[in-house]
Amino acid sequence: MRIKAPAKINLSLRVTSKREDGFHEIITLMQPLSLSDLITVTVNNGAGITITCDDPDIPTDGRNLAYKAALMFLEEAGLARKVHIDMGKRIPVAAGLGGGSSDGAATLQALNELTGAPLTEAQLHAIAAGLGSDVPFFLLRGSAVAGGRGELLRPVKLPGYSYILINPGFGVSAAWAYGNLTLTETSHNIRITDLEESAVALLERPSSVVDILENDLERAVAAQRPEVSELLLALKESGAAGALMSGSGPTVFGLFLSESGAAPALEALEERFKGYDYRIIAAKGL
């Protein structure tokens, strides 16, 4: 079975507090993108989990979230099966786009369908939450406001914005980004209902999205990697309605209200950064 595992961007990411378990409480608005990995899952009689991937830098053992997802699924379902997962990677790694989390969610969904749906949506969600903060979001296959660690989800519909993503060619650990964050008083006052109301209003007034574009992790990452600020400026100069770092970075995105506005900007940015080790990607919000 083949299934797409989409990337995501955070249109807003506010960190409200640090929890006793070491995680952070967040309030975020996420939208899945047309940019996706392609996951092919095969199930046969027998036992064992194997992974192949067209990116040699991706681990194919127990460190891979898709592997962990398959293992946890089989244990929860009480099944003994031979599972093979082939991964066609298109989403940059350690980039703030949720690629690994999306691969894990896609694996869970594929396995549940291939084995006759032995697990309920609630059971899949519980496994996903155990795999990582972003994994439950990808089970939705749509946009959502998220709270808690990211596992408390409120689905919303968003306009199909056009995006240009720029990945500067290096990775950022989410743990490092959160560890270098300075919590602000403003973030403490944010409520999930506020962001949910703002998200719902975007369908009637898509341009108001610029009012919510904020990422509390951006300053911490940009302080160590000035390329982030430079690329954000370049996106704004290209005509983006707004620009932001996604998740824990370092990928940044420019948001365009139409594809016709994004097309010339993509061409200009590709010319501007010719010779740089950057990935510049056009994508559509789903």
UniProtKB/TrEMBL annotation:
**What are the record keywords, sorted?**
ATP-binding, Kinase, Nucleotide-binding, Transferase
| GO biological process terms, semicolon-separated | terpenoid biosynthetic process
InterPro entries associated with the record: GHMP_kinase_C_dom, GHMP_kinase_C_sf, GHMP_kinase_N_dom, IspE, Ribosomal_Su5_D2-typ_SF, Ribsml_uS5_D2-typ_fold_subgr
Which E.C. number(s) belong to this protein?
2.7.1.148
SUPFAM superfamilies recorded: GHMP Kinase, C-terminal domain, Ribosomal protein S5 domain 2-like
Span of domain GHMP kinase N-terminal: 64-142
Gene Ontology molecular functions: 4-(cytidine 5'-diphospho)-2-C-methyl-D-erythritol kinase activity; ATP binding
Ranges of residues in domain GHMP kinase C-terminal: 211-274
So where does this one cross the membrane? none
A Pfam family per the record: GHMP_kinases_N
Leading EC class: transferase
Say which family it is in: Belongs to the GHMP kinase family. IspE subfamily.
UniProt cross-references to HAMAP family, sorted A to Z: IspE (MF_00061)
Q: What protein name applies here?
A: 4-(cytidine 5'-diphospho)-2-C-methyl-D-erythritol kinase
